Amino acid sequence: MKKIILIVEDMASEQAIAKQTAVENGFAVVLAANLTDAVRLWNNLGEKICGVVTDLHFPEKEGGKDVANPTGLAIVMDAVVKGIPVSVCSNIDHHYAEYLKVIIAGLEKLSGKRIPFTMDRKDWGVAIAELKKIIGG
């Protein structure tokens, strides 16, 4: 039975690349487009999810509006709290969010777990390969 990973990415074209890359690396994949979808999938699949690869910025509803906030940090934090390996695949230069490196490094230090972070461009191959190293297999 293939290990299931959760991929969180709002853009359909990026989801397709991420899914194909994960499948080529031997994983089964569930896709979420935002934090709300990710939480729903976690609630439904629970411990069947053995790893997460997430973008950091995607639209969420706030005050009735779609706002692109770094809500992927909530996904990273949830994975860390649940003890699920997580890898971040984001382009922080595009979002002008240099501070995210500091937050991810802090989560690594607090959790004692490595959190791979491809940050200069979205590279699903690297992000999924790094997750695979952590998960094993």
Report low-confidence residues grouped into runs of 5 or more.
none
Between the first and last Cα atoms, what is the distance in angstroms? 12 Å
- Please work out how many helical segments DSSP would assign: 6
Trace the largest sheet across and list its strands: 2-1-3-6-7
> What are the secondary-structure elements, in order, as H or E?
EHEHEEEHEHHEH
Q: Which term fits the overall shape?
A: globular
In angstroms, what is the radius of gyration? 14 Å
The CATH topology is given as Rossmann fold
* Residues in helices, as a percent range: 40-55%
Count of DSSP strands: 7
Number of domains: 1
Overall pLDDT confidence:
86
Q: Which CATH class applies here?
A: Alpha Beta
- The structural class is alpha/beta
* CATH level 4 superfamily: Response regulator
Secondary-structure arrangement, i.e. CATH architecture = 3-Layer(aba) Sandwich
Query: Proportion of β residues?
Result: 15-25%
The largest pleated sheet is described as: 5 strands, parallel
Question: What do these coordinates show?
Answer:
This protein is α/β, with parallel strands linked by helices and about 140 residues long. It has one domain (about 5-135): Rossmann fold (3-Layer(aba) Sandwich), CATH 3.40.50. It contains six helices and seven strands, in the order E-H-E-H-E-E-E-H-E-H-H-E-H. A five-stranded parallel sheet has the order 2-1-3-6-7, sandwiched between helices. It has a two-stranded antiparallel ribbon with strand order 4-5. Helix 3 (about 70-80) runs parallel beside helix 5 (about 100-110). The longest helix is centred in the N-terminal third of the chain and has 13 residues, at about 10-25. The N and C termini lie close together (about 10 Å).
